[in-house]
Amino acid sequence: MTAIVFRSFRGRVLLPLLLPLLAFGASPGAGQEPPVFPSITATPTNRHEPGRFVWYDLVTDDVAAAKTFYGELFGWEFGSNSEDDLFTVITLNGKPIAGIILEDKTERDLPTARWFSSVSVEDVDDAVEAALDRSADIRIPPSDLPDRGRYSVLHDPQGAALVLLRATGGDPTTSTEYGAGEFLWTELWTRDASAAVSFYEAVLGYKAEFTGDETRRYFVMSRDGQPQAGIGQLPPVDADPAWLPYVAVRSVREIVRRVPELGGEVILPPEAIRRGSAALIADPTGGVIAVQEWPLPDQSDGDAKEDR
Fold first, then answer.
1. Burial, 163: exposed, middle or buried (Cβ in 10 Å; 0-12, 13-18, 19+)?
2. Which terminal Cβ of the chain has fewer Cβ within 10 Å, N or C?
3. pLDDT tens-digit readout, 63-84
């Protein structure tokens, strides 16, 4: 088993998980006109937190199916940009949290739908230069979107896609308590965790803390003393490296029960995870996402020590 580790406001918690992760595929097609991307904040904050994951986009060719699935499962609501039907804003309690990008798959053979995670950076161009120096593949060079900000899409040396973003108006405010339906955590699962750690320390300014062992390799990536992401070693399965978003839920078992009813697939059930507090699911269009029970079920100090 592998440990998923992050800090709550009540201290460190360890969430064991083995992920037979699926490939997420490549960035949006070059032959498709880009959607009109709105700001990632309802109102400007004018504050940036480099290293924090601040936005998520689902790229799919079936927006209606995705909206039905996630709306029923997480209580998400949706609003289309009045100027452009290629982009749908996902909101929770009136706050924008993510987006859905409509992609035309007729021009090239694309893999299944996939989630893209966006991380805040101080300077997109500097981060891209650092990534290029370390053999990254820049799929979309630094570009400006008037309302969204300056961004770039890279594939790291092991192939995981990531969006670098300097958001117009600043990053969204940080939750002090995570409610159901909110994005909770982001993890990279990759073939060589140690190499990935070195890459992201250089590109994103992270400081890594090793929390696993030789058979359970996991690193917590922090910036300015705040845990921001995790990096874990993929098990020996036929899977491509990818960044995986987590959504907080009140009951992971209730969510898992409803996934097939809504046309999705349970890839990794809670029964396969110690304490049954998380699961890996796919929506009807193929987008893969994790759900994490939050707050965590009560556990003894002995259990936590055993995980460490």
1. buried
2. C
3. 999 999 999 999 999 986 555 5
